[in-house]
Design a protein that fits this description.
The structure is a single chain. This protein has a four-stranded antiparallel beta sheet. By secondary structure, the protein is α+β, with helices and mostly antiparallel strands. Helix 7 packs parallel to helix 10, helix 8 packs parallel to helix 11 and helix 10 packs across helix 11. It is globular. It folds into two domains: 124 residues, no CATH class; 139 residues, no CATH class. 62% of the residues lie in helices and 10% in strands. The chain starts with a helix and ends with a helix.
Length: 268
C-alpha cells in the first residue's frame, strides 16, 4: 500500500513557489507559475488561465473561489512604473491550468502527470480503513515535523519545547500537558494516540507554520512561537467554522505502535 502512495514528483519547484496568505491559505501566483510551466510569454499563459477558469465554471464551481485576479505595480525602468495583471490561484486552479495547457510543452506534460499522481494518491487515501489512514498520516506528521524543526533552527529558535507547545496551544486551546491530562494519555503520546482527523489537523498546522516561517523570514524564539500559535489558532478556527470536533475533545485511539506491530505479524 505504501508504495502506491509515494510520490516522486517532478514538481518540487511547484511546491517551493507556493505562498501562504494572511489566513494561512496556500496559493500560487500566475506570474511565478508561468515560466515554471514552460511558457515563454505572459500573454500565452494568460489565455491558458482563462481556459482553466472557464473549465471551472463549466464544472459548476464558483470561479472566484479558485481564481482571483490581481493587479501589481512594477518598475519598467527610468523610474517609471506600470500596472500589470496577475492571478492568485489555489491548488485546484493550478490543476486545471495544467490540464488546459499545451501537453507538447515538457513542463506541462510533467505537471499533468504530477497532478494525476496526486489525485490518485488522494483517491487511494480516501478508500483506506481508518487505521491505515492513521499510519499514513502519522508518518507524514513525523516527516513534516522534522522539516519544521530544521526550519525553526535556521530561524534561530533555541527553545524548541516552548515553540512546539505554542503550536499545540493554538490548535488545542490549552498547553500540551493539559491536553495529555484531558485525554488521559501518557507524556509524549499525543500524536501516537491521535486519530486520522486529529493527525491531519496537526499536519496542516505543521506544514503551514514551516511555510510561514520560511516565506516571511521570521527570526527568533518569540516571533516563531507567535507564528506557530497563530497558525494553530487558524486551523482551530477552521474546525469551528465547519462544525467539526475540536481536537482536544477527540478520544485517544490505540497506540500507533500496536498497529504497526500487528501489521508486521500479518506480513510474516
Amino acid at each position: 500500500m505504501s508504495k502506491e502512495l509515494i510520490v516522486n514528483g517532478p514538481h518540487k519547484s511547484f511546491e517551493e513557489i507556493k505562498e501562504v496568505d494572511e489566513n494561512g491559505i496556500e496559493f500560487w501566483t500566475a506570474r511565478r507559475l508561468f515560466p515554471l510551466l514552460g511558457y515563454a510569454t505572459w500573454q500565452a499563459f494568460d489565455e491558458v488561465v482563462s481556459r482553466a477558469a472557464k473549465a471551472a465554471l463549466n464544472s459548476g464551481q464558483i470561479v472566484g473561489n479558485h481564481f482571483s485576479q490581481l493587479t501589481k505595480m512594477v518598475d519598467v525602468g527610468s523610474g517609471a512604473r506600470r500596472v500589470i495583471k496577475d492571478w492568485k490561484l489555489d491548488r485546484y486552479a493550478c490543476y486545471l491550468i495544467a490540464q488546459n495547457g499545451d501537453s507538447r510543452i515538457p513542463q506541462i506534460a510533467m505537471a499533468q502527470t504530477y497532478f494525476a499522481v496526486q489525485t490518485r494518491r488522494q483517491e487511494i487515501f480516501d478508500k483506506l480503513p481508518e487505521e491505515e489512514k492513521r499510519l499514513f498520516v502519522r508518518d507524514e506528521v513525523t516527516n513534516e515535523n522534522k522539516k519544521l524543526f530544521r526550519t525553526a533552527k535556521e530561524a534561530g529558535v533555541s527553545h524548541f519545547g516552548l515553540f512546539n507547545d505554542a503550536g499545540y496551544r493554538g490548535l488545542y486551546g490549552i498547553p500540551l500537558r493539559e491536553i495529555e491530562s484531558k485525554k488521559g494519555i501518557k507524556k509524549g503520546e499525543l500524536l501516537d494516540r491521535a486519530g486520522a482527523s486529529e493527525l491531519a489537523a496537526n499536519l496542516f498546522r505543521i506544514t503551514q507554520t514551516d511555510d510561514k516561517i520560511r516565506l516571511d523570514g521570521i527570526k527568533g524564539d518569540a516571533a516563531a512561537q507567535r507564528t506557530h500559535n497563530m497558525i494553530g489558532g487558524k486551523v482551530r478556527q477552521t474546525i469551528k467554522d465547519i462544525g467539526g470536533i475540536l481536537p482536544e475533545n477527540r478520544k485517544p485511539e490505540r497506540h500507533i505502535k500496536e498497529i504497526k506491530k500487528e501489521r508486521k505479524l500479518l506480513e510474516k
